DNA sequence: GACAGATGCATAGCTGAGCTATGTATAGTA
DNA sequence: TACTATACATAGCTCAGCTATGCATCTGTC
């Protein structure tokens, strides 16, 4: 059995790329656990979309597609669904009759909050053994990841 | 614009569940970035499967399904595909004629390594601004996440 | 100010991952 | 031996996401 990287704590990694692929692997796993634990029916892309709106405020459908990292037709569908359940509102763009501003609606804010709760509650049991300092490490890491993926990320991949 | 959580660094989180949902959100995003940047054609579940085999060694198809967090029929498909490209081998179980041991083949090890490289290379540019200490924080966080998701996770969700 | 090309969103249709339900063969057990 | 449980395979469905394309509107050039 070859337990190289995936083993346990304080693995020493020589390369940044090694760290990043580990990160993606482990969080991929975490996401799967969360999905199964919550029996989530709404797609990840939908939550990404709501998160983006929550973070950056109303924006055009196309822009939203880029930020949420889906194609424009996919975003058209997502927005249509979100509109039906009234989690977002479509606001006509006064400057451009082709465009819409997509805004988070109160129900959407509520849904996003509840999702965060469900997710947190489902995963929290896995992390009960961690002490305060370890929680803090993860917290700082999440902050760093936010910084690194927020805006500049858009430019790295096939610049918009 | 309501930049509460997703904003920038050193967000203070009152709840563990808040941290965890942030973590899932941000890594979900990261995974999307990686997928688009590498133009990945192989499914995440396939990489999870190979990772599991790499970490824990050969195991039965059913066990592999649980560890990779997919249904057994899905794993049957994944294994069939992996077998065709010779990334794994099927070894008849001597004790049970119904069962197979699934083992990582040399080509699979190679493919996994290459995937890690691609992933790392694609994401590394996002992280160039981080200093050594910050990288270390992420590294420790990844280790912690490994610990918390490895084995016990299986029990949390609808105990196998 | 009219036409050409660019841009924003919608629609059509496809692919592929993952699921549930079920089938088939082998194990275990009374 | 027969009955149930278990391991994997098969069938068929659903849904997310994609590309290609259509339609409407905007922008720039002559």
Automatic annotation (TrEMBL), chains A, B:
InterPro entries, per database record = HTH-type_Bedaq_tolerance (IPR052526), HTH_MarR-typ (IPR000835), WH-like_DNA-bd_sf (IPR036388), WH_DNA-bd_sf (IPR036390)
- Annotated HTH marR-type domain ranges read 16-147
Which GO terms fall under molecular function for this chain's record? DNA-binding transcription factor activity
Q: Which domain of life is it from?
A: Bacteria
Q: Which SUPFAM superfamilies match?
A: Winged helix' DNA-binding domain
> Which is a Pfam family this sequence falls into?
MarR
State the protein's name: Transcriptional regulator, MarR family
Q: Which organism is it from?
A: Herbiconiux ginsengi
Its taxonomic path starts at: Bacteria, Bacillati, Actinomycetota, Actinomycetes, Micrococcales
């Amino acid at each position: 059995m070859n337990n190289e990287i995936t083993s346990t704590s304080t693995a020493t990694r020589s390369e940044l790329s090694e760290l990043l692929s580990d990160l993606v692997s482990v969080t991929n796993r975490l996401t799967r656990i969360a999905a199964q634990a919550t029996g989530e029916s709404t797609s990840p892309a939908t939550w990404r979309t709501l998160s983006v709106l929550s973070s950056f405020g109303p924006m055009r459908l196309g822009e939203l597609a880029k930020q949420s990292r889906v194609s424009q037709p996919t975003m058209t569908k997502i927005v249509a669904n979100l509109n039906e359940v009234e989690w977002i509102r479509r606001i006509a763009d006064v400057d451009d009759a082709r465009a819409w501003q997509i805004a988070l609606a109160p129900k959407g804010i509520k849904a996003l909050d509840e999702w965060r709760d469900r997710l947190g509650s489902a995963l929290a049991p896995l992390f009960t053994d961690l002490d305060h300092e370890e929680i803090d490490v993860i917290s700082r890491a999440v902050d760093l990841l936010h910084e690194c993926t927020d805006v500049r990320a858009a430019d790295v991949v096939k610049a918009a």
